[in-house]
Amino acid sequence: MDDYHVVEDAELIRELLGLTADQFEKAAGVTRMALYRWASGESVPNEESLATVYDFAYSKGIRLNKIKARLYCEEYDTQGHVAFFTAQKTV
């Protein structure tokens, strides 16, 4: 589960949807306390929690893998490089 950046992804989802922390908590079904514990390293999200966050994003039309790939390409391109993506991780 170390490959997931669920706390950063949750914040991105929240910002993209224009939700307050309270609204996100109710809509996504993940508490702020859980996000805090994950961010602090006090605990790690289980598979159900990961699915909850990423299923919520997907249900709202947010395709994080595409957004991140685009951001990465734009950042990489500013350095005069070309990026190739060969696989994607799905939840």
Total helices: the number is 5
Q: Shape, please?
A: globular
Mean pLDDT: 82
Sheet-strand content, in percent, reads under 5%
- Helix share of residues? 55-70%
Low confidence ranges: none
Structural class: mainly alpha
Reading the helices and strands in chain order gives HHHHH
**Largest sheet data:** none
Overall number of strands? 0
> Roughly how many Å apart are the termini?
11 Å
Radius of gyration: 14 Å
Task: Give the helix/strand layout.
Blueprint (H helix, E strand, L loop, with lengths): L5 H12 L3 H8 L3 H9 L6 H13 L4 H14 L14
Helix pairs in contact: 1-4
Protein model, in words:
- It contains five helices and no strands.
- It is mainly α.
- Helix 1 (6-17) packs parallel to helix 4.
- The radius of gyration is 14 Å and the shape is globular.
- The termini are close together.
Task: Summarize this structure as a short list of keywords or feature phrases.
91 residues; mainly alpha; globular
Give me a quick take on this structure:
By secondary structure, this protein is mostly helical. The protein has five helices and no strands. The model has no long low-confidence stretch (mean pLDDT 82).
